[in-house]
Amino acid sequence: MKNPSNKTPAYHLSTWMTDLGSSLNNLKLHQLTLPSTHNAGMDKKGIGGPVEGWMACQNDTFPFQIAQGARVFDLRVNARVFNGTLYGFDFFHGPFSSNRSVLGLIKDCNTFFKNDYNSKKHELIILQFHEFKNFRPGDHERLLTQMTQGFSGIGSST
Asked: Model-level pTM greater than 0.70?
């Protein structure tokens, strides 16, 4: 994209879509290259011990990644089931899970948008669910309900 004044546009990483809105307005989503993270939720702060170096794909948390401009999260979701009871959804890479949860991701996204919404109202975060582990019949619907309620219920940013 050429800038007629040959000046680099001013923008912040955490609000780059909003800040560059006039340059992006005529583009369709498929024409953008969106910064993304691989195996989001598997960060060094969410995994401890010897497996950190092998399983962590990110260095820092969801809020950090969002603030640095990531707008697409590649997610592998594990259904935490113990003795037949679903306790929630977390993220995994290979045989290991992190202490990051889907509920935590929803909270982090809502917090990002709620904090100074006017400066972020044109930002977009895409959650790409890539793989599901330990899901039983009905767990996909439970995950969808959790996502829908989290992004449209009390405490949501929408």
From this structure: yes
